[in-house]
Write a structure and sequence with these properties.
This protein is α/β, with parallel strands linked by helices and 263 residues long. Helix content is 49%, strand content 15%.
Length: 263
């Protein structure tokens, strides 16, 4: 596996974990980490044997948001340089959101500012109940621009206003209630629930999961209702005819596990 400066990748069978690895500054991200995350997701998307990517942080916190030492340097940038780095940040969140693999964020300690874009772009986001969440950008005179599409998708317009305009801090229970994460857990329950979710995903057909991710992307981002009328019918017709679907239905009728369980 490729070696990086600010992140680390570990693998276990069909699951890869991307670790944010700047624990000395609570995994705050800079231009290097952003580029490395994009590269890591592109790399892992090409590995057919992998089905799930977990995103988590080394040390005491998931991610403290942007590295302010890096942010401070932008005062010397031209607009074009500022735009280029900002665009790369947008590409990072988009790479996570459009990943071909199922993505799970495991959040502990703190998720501040742009860290909420990392978790919101994932398919699943779980947090420890004592984690601190804050979209704190307005507190330092900036705005949560690049993360906004993914946070708003998760929580909706008006809860996003409350989080983004106040920059207030909330805990894991409150983040769950507002929809920023799927669920919060006590520390000793956290790993077990994620492992259960992984097993649910691995028990499903690999092609079906990938196609389902694509279906949700098309319905929520591209198709109007008239387009969905025909294109959803095309997708299910194609899927029913697939080798995997035929195997899955036969396995169900024959009361056995489908062949992908042995992969």
């Amino acid at each position: 596996m490729r070696t990086y400066k600010t992140i680390e990748i570990t693998t276990n069978n069909q699951v890869a974990t991307i670790w944010l690895n700047r624990p000395e500054i609570r995994n705050a991200f800079n231009e290097t980490m952003i580029s490395e995350l994009i590269d890591a997701f592109e790399l892992l998307n090409k590995k057919d044997e992998l089905r799930i990517i977990i995103l988590r942080g080394r040390g005491k916190a998931f991610c403290a948001g942007a590295d302010l030492n890096w942010m401070k340097d932008v005062k010397d940038y031209t607009y074009e340089q500022n735009y280029e780095e900002s665009y790369n940040l947008s590409k990072c969140f988009y790479a996570i959101y459009t990943s071909k693999k199922v993505t799970i964020a495991m959040v502990h300690g703190a998720a501040i500012g742009g860290a909420n874009g990392l978790l919101a772009a994932c398919d699943f986001a779980y947090g420890e109940e004592n984690t601190t969440f804050s979209l704190s950008e307005v507190k330092i005179g900036v705005i949560p621009a690049c993360i906004s599409p993914y946070v708003i998708k998760r929580v909706g317009e008006y809860p996003a206003k409350e989080l983004m305009l106040t920059g207030k801090r909330i805990n894991g229970h409150e983040a769950e209630k507002v929809g920023l994460i799927n669920k919060s857990f006590k520390e000793d329950e956290f790993e077990n629930h994620v492992n259960e979710t992984i097993q649910f995903i691995l028990s499903a057909g690999p092609e079906a999961v990938a196609r389902c991710k694509q279906l949700i992307f098309e319905v929520t981002n591209k198709w109007d209702l008239n387009t969905a009328l025909t294109d959803t019918a095309k997708m299910i017709a194609e899927t029913r005819m697939s080798e995997e679907a035929q195997e899955g239905m036969c396995a169900f009728l024959e009361k056995r596990k489908p062949k992908w369980f042995d992969q």
